[in-house]
Amino acid sequence: MTHEDTPNAPAPVAPAPSRVLDLDALRAFALLGIFLVNVQIFVDPGMLVNQRAETGPLGDLVNAVTAGAFMGKFYILFSFLFGYSFVLLWDATARRGADVTRVALRRFLALFVLGLAHGLLLFTGDILLTYALCGLILLAARNARVSTARTLAIVLTAVIGLGVVALSALMLAMESFMDLDTAAAMQAGSLDGLLEGSYSQFLLGMYPVTLSNMLLIQGPVALAMFFLGLAAAKARWIEHATPSKLRRVLAIGLAVGLPGGIATGWLQVYAGSLSAELFAFGVATLTGPFLTAAFVAALLLGFRSRAGAKVRSALAPAGQMALTNYLAQSAVMALIYTDYGFDLSGTIHPGTAMLICLGVYAAQLALSAVWMGRLRRGPLEGLFRAFTYWRAPGWR
């Protein structure tokens, strides 16, 4: 099947070098935010069963800033870039004369298997398996018009966000005659034993719980961002994003997203109730995309300066091998915080954990630059491509 044979296919996207670097740099930036959020589960796994450890005022502040500025923001950006890149993959596959559907299905199958292994062996909060399943819906809707894809993204996000807010309001009303926090603690009590066992037992026991959360809550939000990325790529938004448009996105994004982020951080850490945490997630779902858009606009504006272009060049190699770096982050965290290695969970302050993340991320930027300076693809990216296209990995 050729590109011309595909009904309602978008015009071919010619990936200009600067645009590719923009996407890669944004993907690398998203990796940092995801890293800073994921490390919280390693530092304090009790948060998964509603039993946060006492960290003191400074630790609470760090957790609040992380929740407000990073949590629910960067997997949104990664999801948007996934949808954007899907159009590029589709176009490149069609130019080769290959079957777009068959190639995409193999890609999602590889992502599913990799995500399953990641979730069961390294990190219970894996997102790759969810991406693989949501990707099937994206594949089915790939011929959607720009306006249709954009509308689907808005409706999905609004329904999820408003639905969670409404549920939290209902729970708050029920608290007058039901002790929901105690009930939640009793429910979590059945999982307490997992925190006392080995990390492999913890992963096996928690995975069904976290997977259901990913599929039912974060999955639809990720799918919404897939659609938004699909619409943006078809409209060639990054190519056509003038400085004035980017400044407008930045202003609107900060006006809506910043208050939402502050509210989310406060509710998540200081409110201290299950309904408040649920309400915080609803607020994050509704306002997080605005703050994420502000991040993107600020970066794209910065990339257009001489100094910003150097930053983009420093980030881009890590984005080119994002899959390798994402899984490497989980491996490093498991080595530091679990009985896979030093078993330091519960002993490291959240602020120190953030500094460790920044150090590891800086090392990833340096190693990625060296690797991509000599080879064409990252280690896992080459294997991923080999399975997708049934050809040699083509690292060189």
TrEMBL record:
All residue ranges annotated as the DUF418 domain in the record: 233-391
Entries under InterPro entries matching the protein: Bact_Transport_Assoc (IPR052529), DUF418 (IPR007349)
Superkingdom as given in the UniProt entry: Bacteria
Keywords: Membrane, Transmembrane, Transmembrane helix
One of the Pfam families matching this protein, by short name: DUF418
Name used for this protein in its record: DUF418 domain-containing protein
Transmembrane segments: 28-49, 61-88, 108-140, 152-174, 215-237, 249-267, 279-303, 315-336, 348-371
